[in-house]
Amino acid sequence: WEDDPALAGLGKGWRAIARRLAEKGWIEPGVPRTGPAAAPHSRDPGPKLTADQARAVEAMVGALGHFRPLLLHGVTGSGKTEVYLAVIDAVLGRGEQALVLVPEIGLTPQLLERFRARFDVPIVALHSGLTAAERLAAWRAARDGEAGVVIGTRSAVFTPLARCGLIVVDEEHDASLKQQDGFRYSARDLAVVRGRLQGVPVVLGSATPSLETLHNAGRGRYERLHLPERPGQAVHPTMRLIDLRVTPTRDGLTAPLLAAIRRHLDDGGQVMLFLNRRGFAPTLFCPGCGWTADCPRCDARLTLHQRPDGLQCHHCGHRSARTAVCPDCGEEPVAAGQGTERIEEALVRHFPDAPLARLDRDTVRSRGELEAVLAGMRDGHTRLLVGTQMLTKGHDFPGVTLVGVLNADQGLFGTDFRSDERLAQTILQVSGRAGRRDRPGEVLLQTSFPEHPLLACLIDGGYEDFARQALAHRSAAGWPPFAYLALLRAEAVARSEPQAFLAVCAGLARELLPAAVRILGPAPSPMERRQGRYRAQLLLQTTERPALRRALPALLEAIAALPAARRVRWSLDVDPGELF
User: Fold this and answer.
1) Which of 21, 165, 462, 572 has the smallest count of CB within 10 Å of its CB?
2) Residue 103 and residue 478: Cα distance in Å, rounded?
3) CA distances from 523 to 488, 501, 527, 552, 571 (A)
4) Would you say residue 5 has pLDDT above 60?
C-alpha cells in the first residue's frame, strides 16, 4: 500500500506517519468496500400484471433512453410498486441503474426486501439511519456502477450513478420530500431536473398526487398513467362518517367504532387507528380558571406524556414535570383531548385479548423498533395498531380490514393554503391501508363536521373530484400551481427585529423586483415564537416565474449587505412547502 498512487496526494512524509500509525494498530491496509454483493437466489417472478399495469409498464419502457416525466396515478393498493419493479427489470436488462426515492426511512426496509427478492443485482439503501461507513459504501457502489438499484430518501437525489437509466419518486406528494431548513430543495423537483439533464425518464408515483403534479399532467407537461383499480379480488374500502355531535366519545373512541373493531377482530381481521397526535393528551387544562400548561419558549401548549411522565413541547423539546395543582387557582388540572398514548390505554381496556402496537416517534426511535412493529403487522401477530402520520407512508398490511380515523377534522380549517390538500391526502392514504387483498375493507371517520364539503367530496367522488375542485379554488385565489411563491423568513431573540428587518427587505423588493411580483407582509409567522425566538415572514407572489427567478439574485445580494442581516437569522425559500 506504500506504493499506491492513490495515496500520493497526501503529501511528503505520509509513509513514515502511516507506518507509525500502523505499528500502534491504529490503521491497517485494506481494500475499501464498495457495496454489498448480490447473494445468489432464485428470483421471485412476481404476480401477473393487470391490463392497466401492463399499459403503464409499456409506456415507461418505451420512454427509456430519453427524458420523459411520467405520473403514475394509482389508487392505494393498485400495485404501483409492481410497475416500478417491472420497469426496473427492463432498465437492468439494458445494463443501467435505477434510483428510487421514498419519503421516509420507514418505507426503506420493506422496499429493500421486495427488490432483493426480485433482482439478483446489488441493491443499496441511502438514508440518515445508516452509519457513516454504510453510507460511504452505498455511495461508492452507486458511483462505481456496482449497485443496480439505489433506494433512498430525499438526499439520495444527489447520489452519483455511473449509468443512470431511470429515476422513480414514490409517494411524490409527500411533504417530507422537501428539505425545509438549511439547504432547501425539493427532491421531487430535483429528480425531474436531473432526469432532463441525464436524458432519462422520471416516474412520479402516488395515489394522491400533489396539485402541482396534477396541473402539470393536465397541461401535458407530464404523461399521466392511471391505475384506477386494485388487482385481483381487492376492492376499494367503504367509507362512513361518525357524527361526533350526536355520538359521544370516551377517550376518543365512539360506540360505533368500538363495535366495528370488535366485529373485525372476531372475523380475523386487523385494525388500524389513526390519530396525528402523539402523547397522552394535547394539553393539561384547569377546569376552574382555564389555565393551560404552555411552553415557556414557544407559542404552543405542552403535551402531556405518561411514558415518561411529564410535559413536553413537540416544537422545541422543552420538558417539565407534571403539576398536581393549577398554579393560578390551586384546582387539580385535567388532561384535555386525546393522543396516541391515551388511545392505546383505552384499547387495552376494551380489547385485552388483542395484541396491540403503537407507531409514533415515541415508540420507534431506532430502525429495529420500527421494523419490529411493521413485521408484527405483516405477519398478523399484531391485531391492533394505533399511530400517527407514520401510518400513511405507503405500508402494505395485507390483513388490515378496518381503518379508523379518530379525528378527521384536523386540517379542515388550517391557516396554510395547502391544509385541505394535506388533509385529503392523509385521509385517503391511511384509508387505503384497508382491504388490500381479498377481504373487503371498511373505513370509519369520526368528525364534528360531517357536512363539510371536503369530506363529502372525498367520500362521494374520491381524490380526483377533490383535486378538480381544489384546483379551481387555487386558480381563483391565485395560489400555486397558478402562481409562484418565494418566502423570506427571519427570526431573532427580540420580537421587533424580524419584522423591522423584513420591512427593509420589502422596500428593497419593491425597488428590485418587477411590478408583476406582489409583496405581502411582513407579518408574524403563524407560530410567532418558537424555541425562544420570534419569527416573521415576507411573501413574494407572482404569475411570472422567469421574472422572479431573474430578479432574486440581486435582491439576495442587497439583503445580505444590510447591517441588520447580521442581527437576525434569515432565509429565502422558493416554492415553500408550508407557510409557517
Assistant:
1) 21
2) 28
3) 11, 11, 11, 20, 15
4) no
Separation between Cα atoms, residue 538 and residue 520, nearest integer Å:
6
What pLDDT score does 40 carry? Answer: 52
> What's the N-to-C CA distance of the chain in angstroms?
54
Percentage of the chain beyond pLDDT 90 is 61
Among 467, 441, 435, 436, which Cα is nearest to 454's?
Answer: 467
Task: Return the C-alpha cell found at 576.
Answer: 415553500
| Rounded Cα distance, 506 and 373, in Å | 50
Nearest by Cα to 218 from 574, 425, 464: 464
Which residue in the block uniquely carries the three cell numbers 447580521? 566
Cα–Cα distance measured from residue 206 to residue 188, given in angstroms and rounded to the nearest whole number: 12
Q: Give CA separation, 464 vs 162, 340, 460, in Å.
A: 39, 31, 11
Closest CA to 405 of 428, 382, 422, 383: 428
The percentage of the chain sitting over the pLDDT mark of 70, rounded to a whole number, equals 93
Label residue 488 by pLDDT band (50, 70, 90): very high
Amino acid at 29: P
Q: Which residue do the cell numbers 411524490 mark?
A: 172
User: Is it the case that residue 460 has pLDDT exceeding 80?
Assistant: yes
- The order of strands in the sheet holding 484-492 is 518-530, 533-542, 484-492, 569-574
- Band (pLDDT 50/70/90 cuts) for residue 367 is low
Binned at pLDDT 50, 70 and 90, residue 466 comes out as very high
Burial class (CB within 10 angstroms; exposed 0-12, middle 13-18, buried 19+) of 337: middle
Alpha helices in 199-286 (DSSP H): 211-218, 255-266
- Provide the pLDDT for residue 9: 61
**3 state DSSP class of 32:** coil
Task: In whole angstroms, give the CA distance from residue 222 to residue 231.
Answer: 25
Task: Write out the H or E segment, with its range, that includes residue 107.
Answer: none
CA-to-CA dists, residue 244 to 240, 273, 389, 402, angstroms: 13, 16, 22, 19
| Set of cell numbers at residue 406 | 379518530
* pLDDT beyond 90 at 94: yes
Q: What is the rounded distance in angstroms from the CA atom of residue 571 to the CA atom of residue 183?
A: 10
Q: Are 108 and 153 in contact (CB under 8 A)?
A: yes
Q: Are 216 and 181 in contact (CB under 8 A)?
A: no
Q: Is it the case that residue 7 has pLDDT exceeding 70? A: no
Cell of 237: 374500502
